[in-house]
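Troubleshooting entry. Yesterday's outputs looked truncated, so today I'm pasting the complete records for two proteins to confirm everything comes through intact. If either block looks cut off, that's the bug. Protein one:
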Amino acid sequence: MKKMNHTAIPAVLGAPFLFIDMWVGARYPDFATTAPWFSGFAGLIYITAWLRSAENLRRLLDNGKRDFGWYAIRILMCTLIIADISNVWAIVSTEKPLLFYILDAGWPISHLLMFPVAWAVIRSGIFRGYQQFLPLLMGLWFPVGMLLGRNDFALYFGGLYSTIVWSLFAIATARATNSTVLSYLTINHKNY
């Protein structure tokens, strides 16, 4: 029996929290104004879940060499940690000086850093089929979101896009790191 990777479960559960945060902010602007901690809380769950999947990917990419993939995943993880610091800040304080916005830049930078991570994943061959392109799709979320602007289509498309792609990425990394908990959620599982 394979050893279970229970740490992958939070990655799947945290994937929809960006959508939840976007939806609450758009549909209940008064709540977003009176409870600014909520966005930080949702962001903390979402980014920490992404960090969990990134850690699984780091383990998969580690080949004993300090190659491009070694650096790409670690730099990504650093920007995710910086983004989480800004999320904690948003939870505990309503003050947002320049330092907050500098830390908060870790979030969009993390999306853009998924492009070099995607290249490392595709080059390494650790995933097959559509799974090898999931990091690329993750990297495209931010630029596509900026092009769509702020409207209902962008809200639902961006929210569903992030929920689906980040969930699939969490499942792919969990499955590849020998997780039996989530591997049954994938379509092409070989243990019927």
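Protein two, checking that the full record survives here as well:
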Amino acid sequence: MKIMYLLAFILLSFLANAQTTTVTTQFSSSTSTHSDPKSKDKVVVKNSQTNSSVSISNSDSRYQLKASFDAHKKEALKKLLQQYLENEYLLSDSKKQEWKKEEKGKTAYEVLLQENRLKINVDKELNSSSFSEKMVLLGEKISDLISNQ
């Protein structure tokens, strides 16, 4: 009987601490243009596909975003990130941009933008609540930008 109480207590403790919200969104579209087969006009077929996804995890202690997107959206994402993040924490080369802030010997936040991937990790315990809220807002803007065709 004591074992059952112990298991119930552990389960309830786990559920109480697991206050994480995770949102995953995938976007996919395909467009084709065809003309009437009876027409003598040339038929031009135009195919366009996009495969994008955004996954967000937001808990009391951590905020994470992982996204994949079409490469042509990288510049718009880079500009958006530059509006929200401080240049003093930017390390950049031709293939990636990385913002990384260390606090108390730990990573307070890290943002990595590559060809068609973006990762954001924020330790809310090492950042102010206003900065954490700012990053959640940034995540919403990123999701909107990626989902728009």
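Both blocks look complete. Sanity check on protein two: DSSP finds three helices and seven strands in the chain.
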